[in-house]
C-alpha cells in the first residue's frame, strides 16, 4: 500500500496560499494610488516615477531565468516564503528610503518576490491537487490573486492614509500585513517537504528560454509583451491621471474608478474562457482579443469627462484581460510536443515582463515633454498594432492546426 501523503487538506491549504498571494498583491500595488504623494516626497517627475512599477518588471524578467533552479533547491513553499520576505523588504526599504534611487531599489526587491510567487502558486496547486482533473477550479481562482490584492489596496488606500496621515503609514501597514502572512505561511500551510522536493526535482531544471526556439513561440511572447505594455500604462498611470485638473477626481474617487478595471477584468477573463471552448479556430480568437486590446490602449487617456472615464475603465478591464487566457490556450499550437508546450508556457512571462518595463516611463516622459495625456495614445496604438500583426501571423501559421484538431474530436 502506498504511503499516505503527509500534505494537509488540499482546499484549506489552497485557500491559505491564495490569501498569501492577495497579501503580496496588496503590497505590490500600494504604489499606483500613492504616485502623487511619492512624486512630491522624492521631488521627481512622471518619467522617473514610472520606474516605481517598471523596476518590478525588470526584476521579474531577471528572476524568470532562475526561478526553476531556485525552486529545485527550496521547494514551492520556500518560494512562497521568499516572495513574502521580498515584499516585506520592499515595504521596509521603501518607507526608509532617503532618495528616489533607494526607493526604486525597494521596488526591484518586490519584483523579485513577484517572480517567486508566480512560480510557487501553480506548483503548489499541482502538489495539493494530485489529480490533474481537479486542478481547473483552483487554477482559475489562483489567477485572481493579483486582482484581489489590487482591489483591496485601491479601495482602502485613502482610508489607511487618513488613519496614518502619510504614505509612509500605508507602507508600515503593508509591512505588518506581510509579516502576518509570513507567520501563516510557515506555521499553517501544511506541505510535506519530501513530497514537494520530489515533485520539483523529478523532471530536472526547465529553462524558460528553451521555449524561445521557434517563430510561433516568439510571436506569442511578443503579443504578451504588447498586452503588458498597454495594461501596465493604465494600471500605473490611471490614478494619477484621474486626479489631474483635466478630470478632477479626488484620491478616493480616482482609486475606486481605477479598481473598476480589475473587476471587469475578471469578468472578461471568464467570458473569453467560454469563447475559447466554443470557437474552433483559437488563433482567430487571439486576433480578436488583440483588436480589442489595441482599442483599449488608444482610448485610455483621451477622454476627460468623468462619466466617460468610468466607461473607459470598464472597457480597459474587459478588453485587455481577455488577452492572457487566449495566449495560454494558444500555446498548445505553438509547439509540436506536450513538452514543447510546457516550455512555451514557461517563456510567456518573459514577454509580459519585457512589455511592462518601459510602459510607465514612456507614458510619463510623453506627458512631461508634450504636456498632453492624450498623446500617450500614440505609443499605445503602435504597440497594439505590433501585437495585432504578430497575432495575425500566428493565426496564418497555426490556425490550421487548431481547426484540424477540432474536426478530429
Describe this structure in words.
By secondary structure, the protein is mostly helical. The chain folds into two domains: 10-205, MFS general substrate transporter like domains (Growth Hormone, Chain: A, Up-down Bundle), CATH 1.20.1250.20; 206-402, MFS general substrate transporter like domains (Growth Hormone, Chain: A), CATH 1.20.1250.20. The protein has 18 helices and no strands. Helix 1 (10-28) crosses helix 5 (67-96) and helix 12 (251-278) packs parallel to helix 15 (323-330). The chain is globular, with a radius of gyration of 21 Å. The mean pLDDT is 84.
Outline:
The chain has 409 residues and is an all-alpha fold.
Keywords:
single chain; 409 residues; mainly alpha; Growth Hormone, Chain: A; globular; MFS; MFS transporter; transmembrane transporter activity; membrane
What structural category do the secondary elements indicate? mainly alpha
Percent helix: over 70%
**Backbone shape:** globular
What share of the residues does DSSP label as strand, in percent? under 5%
Number of domains: 2
pLDDT averaged residue by residue: 84
* Cα-to-Cα separation, first versus last residue: 38 Å
CATH H-tier superfamily of the largest domain: MFS general substrate transporter like domains
